[in-house]
Structure formats: structure tokens, C-alpha cells
Design a protein that fits this description.
CATH architecture of one domain: 3-Layer(bba) Sandwich
CATH superfamily of one domain: FAD/NAD(P)-binding domain
CATH class of one domain: Alpha Beta
Shape: globular
Structural class: alpha+beta
Helix content: 25-40%
Radius of gyration: 21 Å
Strand content: 25-35%
CATH topology of one domain: FAD/NAD(P)-binding domain
Distance between the termini: 37 Å
Number of strands: 21
């Protein structure tokens, strides 16, 4: 395959971009993945892979190892009121993002994905001889002034997607919520992912190994990690004396809006295709499912089918997450969330299983 052209141009080399590239090769397409970073791509995230995500990675032939967890537990600020549900089917895995990236990279190389180190700055388009009328997208433009042509372009470049912006699909962000993550040298104390609630945000505790947990906090702009922890007294007591193994890493704003996940020969996948919030922890599961759907659409030559499939795959996530984020902006609703979940275990369990599959 010439490095100047491919059937499928994948912009963004994170987990979703790598999965999309693998899907493309499995479908028999030539694939060029463009990413400016050369080493493992890290990200501020909860690092808990839901059972559905684990199954999707297995289908792609991606070999991962991690710390298993059996469900989700919500914890009220007092540390005493909790709601726990173990998954009806399957087991989740806590996996460092860099380890997940390494496993996906190895599989992409194995199936023949070609990588190009470069920063995408825009979309390449055909123009009239006079240069005035913009025609169809034919490829991508790089920061070094070169262009790469391709039949299809998959924008997998995250929350701040260049492809989303340059394709005219971006509707902006409300900029309210951000995430920060660190790791602590501490043996996991539960076989579940704990979600601690406070008046201003949430903290996720994910088992990563026998001797390490990941702590991710979600909350308002300007919140420092140390400041956030003080709002979770029960979690702070658990972490007392533990050594931090990584520095704080942030991401946001989380809310990103799009008019559509497709235009012309450009399809958006993962966070680039619009994002509600990390509150329910299923972004990667949906990203992998949408990567598969997008590749199927381009192989069939019917990109117009992708928006309908995208809406179907993301519907439960968008409705549940939007509802939770909106409801918990009301102080009394936030205070009552865990007690109500504790009193309605079937409802809580059904919601967890819907997000986990």
C-alpha cells in the first residue's frame, strides 16, 4: 500500500482508533492510521473495562490482562450507605490505559495496519479549476504541509477532535465537567468498581492490580485532584498513608455535541462523535461498537446508514447519562441518589447491566 493513499484513513491512535483500524483490516481494507504520538497513549479515565468491552476486545483478538471486578458499587458521602450490583453476565477488567494501548497496538501491527506519525490539521478537498468551489473530501492535511488521500476517513481523535471541527459537524461543549486521574499503591479492598458521591462530583476506584488502584474524579472546572479528594471523606480515609504511583492527569470538558456522526466520506467514532459524560463509565464499550458499525457502513458503501446505527448503539448511554447528570445538578437529588439506589436494588441492577453488556 502506498503511504499516500489508503482505503481507510483513521485519524487518532487511541484505543478506539486502533480498534477501528483493526476492524478495517479484518474487513479487507488497506488502513493507514495517523497519530502524532509515538509511544503509548495515556488518558485520564477510570480504566475499568465493562464485560461488553472485554468481549469486544476478545473478538478483535486483543490479548489483555488486568484485575477482574464483578460489579459496581455506589457509595454515599457517609461511607455507610451503599448500593452494590454484581454483573448478571461476564466480568470486567481494570487495565492501565497504557497497557490497553500496547495490546491494541500489537494487534494492529499483527493484522497489517500501517501507521504514520503526523499531526492532522484539516481535511483535503477537491476544488474547481478556479479554486473557488469546494467539492468532496478526498483525504487529510498534515501539519508538515503534506496530504494523504483515502476513500474513507474515520475521525477517532477524541474529545477535541480536529476532524469533527473541520467537517463542520461540531456544535460545541458546555464546558462544565472535567476528569482527573491518579494511581495509588494500595491493594484493592473490593471486587467491584466503587463510585463515591459528594456534593460536587464523583470519584471512581478501580482495581488495577493486586497492589494498585486507580482513582478518577469527575467534577467542575478548576477542581484540583487534592481538593476533590477532600470532598470524599470515606475514600480519603481508605487512601490515608498510601503512596501515589502516578501524577495527576486531566481531561475535559467532557460534554461535546455534534450535528451528525457522518458527513460526505467522514465518519466520527468514539468521543469525537459527541460525548455526554464519563459518569456511567461505558465510553470505550460504545466506541468499540461504533467502530465496528462504521467499518461495516463503509464496506457496504452506505455511510448514510451509520447515523441510525450510531443512535441505536448510543441511545441507552445518552439517555441514562444525560438524565443522571441533569438530575444530580439538583443538590437534593444528588444527596438522595445512593439511598434510593440502595432501596431499589432491582432498578439499580438493571441500569448497571444495561451499561455493562
Amino acid at each position: 500500500m502506498s503511504p499516500e493513499r489508503a482505503d481507510l484513513l483513521v485519524v487518532g491512535g487511541g484505543p478506539v482508533g486502533l480498534a477501528a483500524a483493526i476492524e478495517g483490516r479484518r474487513a479487507g481494507l488497506s488502513v493507514l492510521l495517523v497519530e502524532p504520538r509515538t509511544g503509548p497513549v495515556d488518558k485520564a479515565c477510570g480504566e475499568g473495562l465493562m464485560p461488553g468491552t472485554v468481549a469486544a476486545l476478545d473478538r478483535l483478538g486483543v490479548l489483555i490482562q488486568g484485575s477482574p471486578f464483578r460489579g459496581i458499587r455506589y457509595v454515599a458521602p457517609d461511607g455507610q450507605t451503599t448500593a452494590t450490583h454484581h454483573f448478571a453476565a461476564g466480568v470486567g477488567l481494570g487495565v492501565r490505559r497504557i497497557a490497553l494501548h500496547a495490546a491494541l497496538t500489537a494487534r494492529a501491527t499483527e493484522v497489517g495496519v500501517i501507521r504514520h506519525c503526523g499531526r492532522v490539521v484539516g481535511l483535503a478537498r477537491n476544488r474547481t479549476a478556479a479554486g473557488s468551489e469546494v467539492r468532496a473530501v478526498v483525504g487529510i492535511e498534515l501539519a508538515d504541509g503534506t496530504a494523504i488521500n483515502g476513500r474513507w476517513i474515520l475521525g477517532c481523535d477524541g474529545l477535541h477532535s480536529i476532524i469533527r471541527r473541520e467537517s463542520g459537524l461540531e456544535l460545541g461543549s458546555d464546558g462544565r465537567r472535567f476528569g482527573i486521574r491518579r494511581h495509588a499503591a494500595l491493594a484493592p479492598w473490593a471486587d467491584v468498581v466503587e463510585v463515591h458521591w459528594s456534593a460536587n462530583g464523583e470519584a471512581y476506584v478501580t482495581p488495577i492490580s493486586d497492589s494498585e488502584v486507580g482513582i478518577a474524579v469527575l467534577g467542575p472546572r478548576g477542581w484540583s485532584f487534592d481538593e476533590a479528594l477532600t470532598t470524599f471523606p470515606a475514600l480519603t480515609r481508605r487512601l490515608d498513608g498510601a503512596a501515589w504511583t502516578t501524577s495527576a492527569r486531566g481531561a475535559g470538558p467532557l460534554r461535546q455535541k455534534v450535528s451528525s456522526p457522518v458527513r460526505d466520506r467522514v465518519l466520527l467514532i468514539g468521543d469525537a462523535a459527541g460525548y455526554v459524560d464519563a459518569l456511567t463509565g461505558e465510553g470505550l464499550r460504545i466506541g468499540l461498537a461504533c467502530a465496528r458499525a462504521a467499518v461495516r457502513a463503509v464496506v457496504a458503501g452506505r455511510p448514510q446508514d451509520y447515523p441510525r446505527t450510531w443512535r441505536s448503539l448510543t441511545r441507552e448511554y445518552r439517555w441514562l447519562t444525560s438524565g443522571l447528570v441533569s438530575a444530580t445538578r439538583i443538590p437534593v437529588a444528588r444527596r438522595m441518589l445512593v439511598p434510593v439506589a440502595s432501596r431499589l436494588p432491582r432498578v439499580f441492577g438493571a441500569a448497571v447491566d444495561a451499561l455493562a453488556r
